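tool_call: predict_structure(chain=1)
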Amino acid sequence: MEGEKVMELSPALIIKKGHGEAAYHFLKQNSWLDSKKQLNEIENGILAIPINENCPLAKEKINIFDNEKRIDVRIENVEMSSNPPSVEPHARLHESITQWLQSNLEIDDSLSQQSRVILMDDLLSKIPKKWEKLGDLILLPQTTFSSNKWTSIISEENQLSLWKCIAEALKIERIGIQKHINDDIERSSQAQLLLGNSSWVELLDFGVKFGFDACKVMYSSGNVTERHRIGNMDMNGETIIDCYAGIGYYTLPMLVRGDAALVHACELNQHSITALEWGAKANNVSNRLIIHQGDNALTMTKLEGIADRCHLGFLPSSQPTWKLAIACLKEKGGILHIHMNVEEEKIEQWIDSTIHSLQQYVIELKRNYKVEVLHLEKVKWFAPRVRHVVLDVEFIHYD
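tool_result:
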């Protein structure tokens, strides 16, 4: 019957209820507590606390003290029910890795009980607290399991079981780990697949379909609010240049949701272009997209005077393309969306200096434009005290 508890015989530490808290914490500190089972009061004033296979079965080896007095215990098999699985992913991950460590961690018998507890606590404190979820693929932070203690535990023989343990806890099929982004002109991804046969990911976000190889290109989940903001703008009838198109992170929302007439997408990385082409086809916008492969310092020079707006979504700074972007605007003017990483206390100063620089470029290009700030969007914290911001700037033609 649905909701009925399933009982099964399981080993348990039998103890008086008054000593339950001391016994529970003792078992937990020694990693002897079976967290899959529920603590049970088997008779009036007597508790059965579930223990796992690592707990010694000889009561003489279980030294629990409460108020400096040793507690009398015994071990029996009793009927116990299972705990419902945790719905909180961090708790599930902690529990799952704890169990993995209990099976794979070889602890020197000479270590004291306190040293064992400290070792386990140290290892568990290094469990990742955040990750990027892309469909059924999770990318762990690049520092995951990188400490000396963890690298000494993980081996070729046991690592697959660890990845499967994590996948089961987080209810996904594939696992990867982030690596440093290549310091090259393509800014290519260096993620590594740990579990699974493919790193190709397909997502639906706010009505826009994306597809990409997560181990070869970047997908910025943290910029979701900005992607939605750009997609919500009415771009009907406009010709747009996305100066750093990538996989179409902003290109596709501008076409699908913004209803842009045409987007010229400048991109160097062939893996990103493959993803962008897939996305254009999946969203039925291929006929309104032109991809320009190569360095945008060259491709943008062929697009002068055609754009109603240019999107400059490159960090930490898109300044190398500001002048080129202004040159791409139509004679009547247009809009630039300028991304930048800026220290919080210097944002106003940066806005002023940016407008000044843009005005200088206007003079050099001999354009009759007034330059006005439309909006500043604070997207997210990029680092302590450093904001990822987007400055919307309008260039207005005057006679």
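agent: Residues 347-365 form the longest helix (19 residues). Proceeding to next step.
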